[in-house]
Write a structure and sequence with these properties.
27% strand; binds NADP nicotinamide-adenine-dinucleotide phosphate; 36% helix; alpha/beta; 14 helices; six-stranded parallel β-sheet
Length: 431
């Protein structure tokens, strides 16, 4: 076999980047794989908008069927995004005996169980390197480079938009609204950035990372998800005084045999490597038993970054086909040390707490009394201003406390007539 035919569905941002790389790097890729990767058909809804590469009209079609049903096509690349008809396209491609490459984290997070099972049944593969971290080869690293490792945890900054917003607030002392506006102006946020800001995009990626690290395909409902829209510039600044930096982290970790999967704004020590990951960059901090602690870092989006990962998947499948191999990337072995998923109420962490309370004698004692009643002990307290008989911020850092207790304590504190709701608690991770 000296030629592999590829059919592309979705000739948009990433799709046109893939075609450009396959054209520009044709000789190099051929030398490395010993096979020519040939684009046989390209499908899109329309071809009017400008692309960074020109292609012969004879390759173009508006019908996905023409790609999926072409018997000469070996690999179908789905780059349209969304759930439907992307799901149907992948199902039909697998049923037609084709391997699939996709960058569609939302689809795999929601429908992965069915799609991966079908791929296994048909002895085909779904490769999805671009779906997490774009060009950062984190999936290949977890799947292959670290194959003999047992993972303890993975902490990811996996959403460039929210990381840009938090970095902008932290570095330029601006409000959330201004940071979002800046992200839109610079093309780092969609018109409606809610999936990025509310943590759902990060949760989709966490589902795939958890699958690769722990062999568990959890669902979105299993993940605790909290976004960044309630984060204020004053909390960022108070946390800085404590030597802490805020990041939206996607976290999967094992504690006492229980797997925690959560996405939320997290305070981490300023001198930790993840704290300096700024702007639209992504990073993954992985702890493993053999290779130790590793950081993967780089741009988490962008046409050529994502297309680079798609081409890497195409090369992997090409080599497998050439070698006559069926090698499932999906045969993740569940980590048997994981007894169950831990609910958010049961997690334990240190907390940054900010309360707005009346500056008068006895108030602090009442607040500490409530925290004590819920078993929460305080490591440090500082009152940020002095304005007698007026509301002032009080910032505390707790020792390890149970989430459920912290929530109940804050609800009780917010009911005090000397406190102005709503008090803030941000989890601190000892990454
Ligand atoms: N952009 C990135 O940096 C990046 C990074 C990692 C992963 N990804 C993932 O890559 C995938 C593609 O993203 P993208 O940024 O390339 O999106 P995009 O620029 O919107 O490209 C998608 C293309 O598919 C076309 N399309 C939509 N539905 C179709 C259908 N039913 N049949 C044929 N064509 C259809 C769209 O046409 P219309 O425009 O006319 O709808 C558009 O040209 C998504 O799953 C995304 O999450 C993107």
């Amino acid at each position: 076999m000296n030629k592999i035919n590829v059919g592309l569905i979705g000739f948009g941002n990433v799709g046109s980047g893939v075609v450009k790389i396959l054209r520009d790097k044709k000789q190099l890729l051929c030398k490395k794989s010993g096979v020519e990767i040939n684009i046989k058909k390209i499908c899109d809804k329309d071809f009017k908008s400008r692309r960074p590469v020109s292609v012969e009209k004879s390759l173009l079609t508006r019908s996905p069927k023409e790609v999926i049903e072409d018997p000469q096509i070996d690999i179908v690349v789905e780059l349209i995004g969304g759930i439907h008809p992307a799901k149907e396209i992948i199902i039909q491609a697998l049923e037609g005996g084709k391997n699939v490459v996709t960058a569609n984290k939302a689809l795999l997070a929601q429908e992965g169980k069915e799609l991966f099972a079908l791929a296994r049944d048909r002895a085909k593969n779904i490769y999805f390197e671009a779906s997490v971290g774009a060009g950062i080869p984190i999936i290949k690293a977890l799947r292959e480079g670290l194959v003999a490792n047992k993972f303890h945890d993975i902490f990811g900054i996996v959403n460039g938009t929210s990381n840009f917003v938090l970095s902008e607030m932290s570095r330029n002392n601006c409000t959330f609204a201004r940071a979002i506006a800046e992200a839109k102006t610079r093309g780092f946020a969609e018109k409606d950035p809610s999936l990025d800001i509310n943590g759902i995009d990060s949760a989709h990626k966490l589902i795939l990372l958890t699958y690769l690290c722990f062999g568990r395909l959890v669902s979105l409902n299993d993940i605790f998800v909290e976004g960044i829209s309630h984060i204020s510039i004053s909390d960022i600044n108070y946390a800085k005084e404590l030597g802490l930096e805020i990041k939206l982290l996607a976290i999967a970790k094992i504690e006492k045999g229980e797997l925690e999967v959560r996405v939320h704004p997290t305070l981490i020590p300023m001198d930790h490597l993840l704290a300096s990951v700024d702007g639209i960059d992504n990073a993954f901090y992985v702890s493993s038993d053999l290779a130790g602690n590793l950081l993967f870092y780089g741009p988490g989006a962008g046409q050529l970054c994502a297309a680079s990962a798609v081409v890497s998947d195409l090369m992997d499948i090409t080599k497998d086909i050439k070698a006559g191999l069926f090698k499932s990337v999906l045969n993740n072995v569940p980590d048997i040390s994981v007894k169950k998923l831990r609910k958010i109420d049961e997690i334990e962490s240190r907390y940054y707490i900010r309360i707005l309370a009346m500056d008068k004698p006895g108030v602090l004692a009442r607040v500490s009394g409530i925290l004590g009643k819920f078993g929460i002990s305080i490591a440090s307290v500082s009152q940020k201003e002095r304005r007698k008989a007026q509301i002032v911020p009080i910032v505390m850092v707790s020792h390890e406390a149970k989430e459920k207790n912290m929530r109940q304590a804050l609800v009780t504190i917010d009911r005090l007539n000397v406190v102005r709701p709503k008090s803030v608690a941000i989890r601190i991770e000892e990454v």
